[in-house]
TrEMBL record:
It comes from Loxia leucoptera. The lineage of its organism: Eukaryota, Metazoa, Chordata, Craniata, Vertebrata. This is HUTU hydratase. It comes from the Eukaryota. GO terms for biological process: L-histidine catabolic process. It holds the Pfam family Urocanase. Residues 2-214 form the Urocanase Rossmann-like domain. One of its GO terms (molecular function) is urocanate hydratase activity.
Length: 216
């Protein structure tokens, strides 16, 4: 319902065939995102750093394909988008890398490859394994979290700033992004990322929450 209503509200579209939804997280509640993309008929690219979560969703049939190669992900995205095929593709890697690759595609080809975007990393718990920084692999991140939590926290905040910077560039060109109620925008703001709504008070963000704006 969230994906369908986002399409209706942001894209003025009842049919999401050929539209692309990019997000992250395939554990817990976020695991439903891949299934939702296919039900809605769009192309869903979902990033996940934890291979175990990715494989589990694939084995359950909630995720159609898995890849750890961004070139392959972009090629499949382009193909499914062109043919208007419903697809759920799990990218085994950090979502920041995925967002930054989409920015690079925009910069080099002039093509905006994503229509809808969100995030379901566990940003309500960003410094204890809910969000892994792009600068490190998943295993390196786990080791640093154990050995030097202060440095891990600093890297998470740097990563959040990069994360938002990429989203902002794509949103400026017409992608519609929303907060999925996971404290992503709040933690990004605390990290110093550019998420404030211009001309508004400090508690308002430039992107809406799905609760009030989409589901409501």
């Amino acid at each position: 319902l969230t994906v369908l209503n986002a399409g209706r509200r942001y894209l003025r579209a009842e049919d999401l065939a050929g539209k692309v939804f990019v997000t992250s997280g395939l554990g817990g509640m976020s695991g439903a995102q891949a299934k939702a993309a296919v039900i809605a008929g769009c192309v869903g690219i979902i990033a996940e750093v934890d291979e175990a979560a990715l494989v589990k969703r694939h084995q359950q049939g909630w995720l159609m394909e898995i890849s750890n190669n961004l070139d392959h992900c972009i090629a499949r995205l382009r193909e499914a988008r062109k043919k208007k095929i419903a697809l759920s593709l799990g990218y085994h890697g950090n979502v920041v890398d995925l967002w930054e690759r989409l920015v690079r595609e925009l910069d080099t080809t002039g093509e905006l490859l994503v229509d809808l975007g969100s995030d379901q990393t566990s940003c309500h718990n960003p410094f204890n394994g809910g969000y892994y920084p792009v600068q490190l692999s998943f295993e390196e991140g786990k080791q640093l979290l154990s050995s030097n939590p202060g440095k891990f926290r600093a890297l998470v905040q740097e990563s959040l700033k990069r994360h938002v910077a990429a989203i902002n560039k794509l949103a400026d060109k017409g992608m519609f992004f929303w907060d999925y109620g996971n404290a992503f925008l709040l933690e990004a703001q605390r990290a110093g990322a550019d998420v404030a709504k211009k001309g508004a008070n400090k508690t308002e963000f430039r992107y809406p929450s799905y609760v009030q704006h989409i589901m409501g």
